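Re: How this chain folds, sequence and tokenised backbone to follow

Filed under: protein folding, tokenised backbone structure, sequence and structure records.

Contents: The amino acid chain and a row of whole-number tokens, matched residue for residue.

Body of memo: The sequence and its backbone structure tokens, given next.
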Amino acid sequence: MISYRQQLSKIGYAAGEQVHYVNFGYRPTSLRKAMRAMDAPHSYALVTEAPGRIDESWTEEVQGVIWDGAHWLFSSNGSGSPSVNPSPKAIYTFNGNNGKFKSPDQTFVINPAGINHIGPMYYQGNILYVEHWIGEQASLLTYQNNNGTLSYQNRINIESIKGGRVGVVGIDFENGVVYTCPVGLVIPELYIHKFSPDHTAITYTGKTLPLNPILDEDCYVQGGFFSPNGHLYISSGRGGISSNYQYIYCYSAISGKRINRIEVLAEKKGGFTGIQAKQELEGICYAPVTRGGKAVQIHAVLLENIAVSKDNIFFKSFVASEPDLI
């Protein structure tokens, strides 16, 4: 039988180290659940890129992806002015049954106006949460989802840290916890926020989850999700870096220990001959579905920024060696 001490060693605690439950970054509701949350998949593999590279008018500056159980939804930051044929900040929905991503079933232009940037998305109980920011104020826009049709609800402001904007990494909806991070190329820790009881504000608890090791490979945090087994999967990407790979990292939400990583091919140069296309890992999501005839669980958007035309994306899906441990 595996002991509690053996499990703790998997998330970075040394033998004999005093471990207090109250100091956990994430506190499962039972010992059994805590023990299970110390396990994670041993490996991950790219299963399918179907339909692979998507080059359509709507793929300009796509930032995030989510699955609502029947539809794929993509958030786009748009091109705006002064681009030729500018595209709006919008959410695009596609029927998940046909697997086609050429023409959106519906397009929802972001409302209210005056949004500087929209990014990754999160989903719970027919409510879509879209991260956005204006200056140093980060927020979540919420939309009611009725079978792929969205209706705007409200804006939930996220408390800034030391006067600076934060980015959302994942949401533990069961406990009302929102994990955020500082904005920059070095991320030593995550901030732990909570929804207010009336769900109209997201406030900082004063607690952090130190990351071990820290994120410092010259990339920005682009999104993430809080997994069913109590892990934080974080996408880290930036266009124009020297590496041909960017990464999705799996961290324990209990201790902040890095457990594993997923390599995402993101070539330094691509697209048309002689033109540099900066490939950048963007938002990710968890969705146990079948794509390309194969079971997959983790999905990522790789954005290919092309200077002279609308951007392309690669929609990548990954399978875990032990899906139940994601």
